């Protein structure tokens, strides 16, 4: 296929593993090419591991050694096919060089077939978008209709992509959708795919490079996140309900603490309160407590909500500053409810555990 959307040689430096013997043969007829290569691409340069001629009828047989299990390109003429080589299995490829999108068959390499399936899907979408842009340029009066059509087509394309990922969730072919994701823009999706890919094909130096980049980015994110798991919680001191006495978060050291930012006017907070009460009653005797930081500005409504919801723990604090509460400002709280579960040493366990997730985590910690 032409105009590949993904270049396998994304990394100029890779660490190779075991040397493998490979054997790829088959028939690609009517391709217009007279030679075929097994290669990897590094930037704009190809490294060829084997080359041979294509017979008049398109038969070929390539063999030799490769530096490791990895992703390779089978190149002939202006076409390139993705090939996953994991072991010494004899891979066979048969296709019509005039229409590789519809007529191509892989034997003994299902993951290579899956990569080709992805390339057909994405190339088809790119051709469709190019055609739409050209149609709009040719007849601007049709822009609204074309955009409406393309909006629907894009939704179908995204559904197909998600279906691909779901079907091949433990395949080396995940490298293709992974390469299309911007690590900085969609870290959760990138993380999900790269972890699955590493589990399935960690022998690949290219996968190792993706995974190492992910680990580096993850470390950067965690270093920038003051509430990352294992980080010491930020200390503060705030007024209790009487408006005179204060308490510090560290006064609760030695207990597992749910630090809960809430307010009487916050519907989701009030809805979650019965779950917090239930867990407090169950685990308080084992060393669990709650410290509630209110973003109320009306003291009477704050105290009434504590009473109405049965928030029986003593650790209720607020400066009645609303969103300008100094603790909320210190913690960068911009929406509530917001919770942080803190271990006995004052380190973060997790954030925003609510409902069943909170109950399961406490069960994990206390064992009942």
Structure described in brief:
The protein is an alpha+beta fold.
Architecture overview:
With 368 residues, the chain is an alpha+beta fold. The protein has a domain at 237-366: Glutaredoxin. 38% of the residues lie in helices and 25% in strands. The chain is built from 9 helices and 15 strands. It has helices at residues 110-138, 143-167, 175-179, 187-201, 205-224, 267-283, 299-309, 326-331, 356-366, and strands spanning 20-29, 35-42, 45-53, 59-66, 70-76, 79-85, 90-96, 104-107, 237-239, 246-248, 256-262, 288-294, 316-317, 338-342, 348-351. The protein has a 5-stranded mixed sheet with strand order 13-12-11-14-15, covered by helices on one side. Strand 14 and strand 15 form a beta hairpin. The longest helix is centred in the middle third of the chain and has 29 residues, at 110-138.
